[in-house]
Each structure stands twice: as structure tokens, then as C-alpha cells.
Write a structure and sequence with these properties.
The protein has 338 residues and is an alpha/beta fold. It has helices spanning 14-27, 40-47, 53-62, 81-88, 148-164, 182-196, 208-217, 229-242, 280-292, 296-312, 326-337, and strands at residues 3-8, 32-37, 64-67, 93-99, 111-117, 121-132, 135-145, 169-174, 202-207, 224-227, 250-254, 259-263. The protein has 2 domains: 1-89 and 258-338, Isopropylmalate Dehydrogenase; 103-244, 3-Layer(aba) Sandwich (Isopropylmalate Dehydrogenase), CATH 3.40.718.10. The chain is globular, with a radius of gyration of 20 Å. The chain binds 1,4-dihydronicotinamide adenine dinucleotide and magnesium ion. Residues 233, 237 line the site of magnesium ion (MG).
């Protein structure tokens, strides 16, 4: 029976990379019953709201979504639909692996998995501007909220992932020296959960700034990394940079009963509409979706086809110093699948 799937093609390069991804999924003979919905700026322009009820209803019905990036206005306008979806559906763990597909970069064999707490921290949107002496923006304030509950489930997810995927170590990344409450709690919970996994998974911890430095000097020091929402956002872009850039980095937002798969990157307005975006990140996100659906075989076939396309056939998009269009790249992956 076909698996019901909510597809949100997204804004900017979203439709281009989503079409490429769907072509590859079709070539791999997957069987999805697709309910296409809209969100973000595309939805705002079309139906007057960035998160239509129909989109939420569809995801509530399918519990499975594949999503292109959604644009969020900077410094003004509506709040991130990505953040809203993660919170609304309680997609508490954001799993972001960074693996070398194309050797010959700065490092060989990067293989780090980041787990980002996905529902709270500075992302709760408790922000205020305070007017003083006629200046409406004299003071700006953002409140970070961290709960023991959310720390526990994100960190436990990371340890479970490590234990079930043959991983050696979980690194808890924090800023507990300065943010003694919010980051201190995260570290404390990490140390407690580590005790449950003693003898199976090692644990260490690192302060976020030092973590960034260590990761670019020698990524092999890291295995599974777990951190709070904002640090995870920044660190996952850094990790993408270790494996060829944002075009290579997928992500899975996982909750108790629903999951949403997307790229780490955004809508790339600077190259949108040109047909040159790298669809690899979203194709790899689709592979993570197949892993989640326990269709490991198809997921691995697509990953192999991707690697053959960039390495053996030398077909690459512009971000990887090639000249293939998004569509040509997707066709090449399909050829490898046939
Ligand atoms: P971005 O990730 O869209 O782009 C950063 C740089 O990477 C740009 O130079 C872009 O051209 C390049 N890039 C990204 N993906 C690429 C791909 N697949 N192939 C080739 N090059 C690629 O970040 P930016 O510009 O800061 O954000 C743009 C918009 O995306 C913002 O509105 C932001 O809020 C939104 N965004 C949405 C996300 C989501 O839907 N989950 C995640 C991150 C940002
Ligand atoms: Mg980000």
C-alpha cells in the first residue's frame, strides 16, 4: 500500500530541488500517496497565510512530511513556519548527519551526527522591544526557556541513536560557563542520562565555541553531538561546510508520532529560479525518510547512486565546482538507479 506523504515544495530553490527529489524517488520505485501542500511565502502570496490549515491538517493525517525550505522574513514579518511546524507537531529531535560523499575536500571521511533540541531554547519567540525616551527599540530582549523534559528526550534520542547505530560517543555541547541556568541544565541532564548508557556509549562535553574550533581542525574527534536549539542551528551549517557545503546536508525532525524531512539549508534566494541548486541535501533527507520507514534497501540504493553520480560520473552542480543543472543532476542519479 502507498505511504501517505505530505509534500511541501517550499520557497526559493524549494520547488526546483523538490522536483528533483521526487524524480529520484520515482526512479527508485518508491510508493508514496502524495498530498501536495504549500507553506511560507508561497502560501502567504497565494492564500494570505504562511501556514494554511490545509497544510497542518494534511501533516496531521499523514504524520509524514517532506519539505523544501521556507523563507522567513529577516528582522520583521511572520515567525518561522519551520519553527512553528516543529513546535506544533512536537518534533523534538532534529537529526543532522554530516558525512563525506565526495572525497577530496578539506577532510576525508567526515562522519558526525548532530542531534539538535528542536522545540525550545531561544526559539520560543518570547521577544520584546522596550521603548525608552522616544526610541521604540532602545532595548531588545529574548528569553530562552529550557525544560528538563525537552533536554531529557533530545539527549536520550542522541544516546539511543548512538547505541543503535554502533556509535562510540556522545558529546554534549553547551555554554554552561556563561548560561549557567539554561545551558547548565542541559549539561546536567546530559551527565545523568550518560550514566544509563555507561559501558555502551561514552560521553564527554565541550563548550560551544571550543567545539566550533575543534570541529574545523579535526572533525574525527566527534561522533554524535547533542546540543540546544540555536547552537545546533549554527553547528549544523558548520558541519555542512566540512562535507562540501549546504547542498550536501540533510535533516530529519522527529517526534513521537510524526516526522518531517528537509535539507539543513534555506531557500537560497540568491540562486532561486536559476535551475542550478544542488538537490543532494533534500534527496538525502528523502533517504532519511526511507530509513525512518524502514526501507533501508531503497535508501542505500539512492545513496550509492548519488555517490556514483558525483564521484564516478563526475556530474556535479555549481556549488561543487561542476556545471550540471539541478535537473541534469537528478537525471544522472536516476540513470544510476535504473
Ligand atoms: P541558505 O541556506 O538559504 O543559503 C546560504 C548560502 O548557501 C547561499 O549562498 C545559497 O545559495 C547556498 N545554498 C543553500 N542551499 C544550496 C543548495 N541546495 N545548492 C547550492 N547552494 C545552496 O541561507 P540564507 O540565505 O541565510 O536563508 C535564506 C532563507 O531561508 C531565509 O528566509 C531563512 O529564514 C530560510 N531558511 C529556511 C530553512 C528551512 O526551511 N528549514 C533553514 C534555513 C534558512
Ligand atoms: Mg539553520
Amino acid at each position: 500500500m502507498a505511504t501517505p506523504l505530505t509534500l511541501i515544495r517550499g520557497d526559493g530553490i524549494g520547488p526546483e530541488i523538490a522536483d528533483a527529489t521526487m524524480t529520484v524517488l520515482a526512479a527508485a520505485e518508491t510508493d508514496f500517496d502524495i498530498d501536495e501542500q504549500i507553506g511560507g511565502v508561497t502560501a502567504l502570496e497565494k492564500v494570505g497565510t504562511p501556514l494554511p490549515e490545509e497544510t497542518v491538517d494534511s501533516f496531521r493525517r499523514t504524520n509524514l512530511a517532506l519539505k523544501g525550505p521556507l523563507t522567513t522574513p529577516v528582522g520583521k514579518g511572520f515567525r518561522s513556519i519551520n519553527v512553528q511546524l516543529r513546535r506544533e507537531f512536537d518534533l523534538y529531535a532534529n537529526l543532522r548527519p554530516a558525512r563525506t560523499i565526495m572525497p577530496g575536500g578539506r577532510f576525508e571521511d567526515v562522519d558526525i551526527v548532530l542531534v539538535r533540541e528542536n522545540t525550545e531554547g531561544l526559539y520560543i519567540g518570547h521577544e520584546t522591544l522596550i521603548a525608552v525616551a522616544g526610541d521604540p527599540k532602545a532595548v531588545a530582549q529574548s528569553v530562552a526557556v529550557v525544560t528538563r523534559h525537552a533536554c531529557e528526550r533530545a539527549i536520550r534520542f542522541a544516546f539511543d541513536y548512538a547505541a543503535t547505530h554502533g556509535r562510540r560517543k556522545v558529546t554534549v555541547c553547551h555554554k554552561a560557563n556563561i548560561l549557567k541556568a539554561v545551558s547548565g541544565l542541559f549539561l546536567e541532564v546530559g551527565q545523568k542520562i550518560a550514566e544509563e548508557y555507561e559501558g555502551r556509549v561514552e560521553m564527554d562535553d565541550v563548550i560551544i565555541d571550543a567545539c566550533a574550533m575543534k570541529m574545523v581542525i579535526d572533525p574525527s574527534q566527534f561522533d554524535v553531538v547533542v546540543t540546544t536549539n540555536m547552537f545546533g542551528d549554527i553547528l549544523s551549517d558548520l558541519m555542512a561546510g566540512l562535507v562540501g557545503g549546504l547542498g550536501m546536508a540533510p535533516g530529519a525532525n522527529i517526534g513521537e508520532s510524526a516526522a518531517l524531512f528537509e535539507a539543513v539549508h534555506g531557500s537560497a534566494p540568491d540562486i532561486a529560479g536559476q535551475g542550478i541548486a544542488n538537490p543532494t541535501a533534500l534527496i538525502l533527507a528523502a533517504c532519511m525518510m526511507l530509513d525512518y520507514l524502514e526501507d533501508q534497501n531503497t535508501a542505500d540504493r539512492i545513496r550509492v547512486a548519488l555517490s556514483q553520480t558525483v564521484n564516478d560520473d563526475g556530474i556535479r552542480t555549481r556549488d561543487l565546482k561542476g556545471n550540471a543543472s539541478t535537473e541534469e543532476f537528478a537525471k544522472a542519479v536516476c540513470n544510476r538507479l535504473s
